[in-house]
């Protein structure tokens, strides 16, 4: 469902949709963002997308080594934290704070 909403926002942003815009490499990049952030973690997916969108921009000056650095960082990430950045973080306490009702006095 979230992917559908993201696709709708993307279509609105670029104002033109074409099947050739969604190549295998684009699908692979989106999948890596989700895995990097943490499977089963919506905030992790957002963080993974943010990191993997900003990282190529930061490595722009190292154009000839950019993909090597990008790949090395991905391998290190998978070895050090295979569940993703926020894969094991429990966000139940946030739900309790946001959705809790204050009880009035009787």
TrEMBL record:
Record-level Gene Ontology MF annotations: branched-chain amino acid transmembrane transporter activity
Stored InterPro entries: ABC_transp_permease, LivM-like
CC terms in the record's Gene Ontology section: plasma membrane
Subcellular locations according to the entry: Cell membrane
Segments passing through the bilayer: 30-55, 67-86
Organism: bioreactor metagenome
Keyword set includes Cell membrane: yes
Chief location: membrane
Protein topology in the membrane: Multi-pass membrane protein
Keyword Cell membrane: yes
Keyword tags: Cell membrane, Membrane, Transmembrane, Transmembrane helix
Protein's recorded name: High-affinity branched-chain amino acid transport system permease protein LivH
């Amino acid at each position: 469902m979230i992917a559908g909403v993201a696709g709708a926002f993307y279509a609105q942003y670029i104002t033109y949709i074409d099947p050739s815009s969604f190549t295998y490499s684009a699908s692979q990049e989106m999948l890596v963002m989700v895995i990097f952030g943490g499977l089963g973690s919506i905030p992790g997916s957002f963080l993974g997308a943010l990191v993997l969108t900003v990282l190529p921009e930061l490595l722009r000056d190292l154009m000839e080594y950019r993909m090597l650095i990008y790949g090395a960082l991905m391998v290190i990430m998978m070895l050090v934290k295979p569940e993703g950045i926020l894969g094991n973080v429990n966000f139940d306490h946030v739900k309790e704070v946001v959705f809790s009702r204050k009880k009035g006095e009787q």
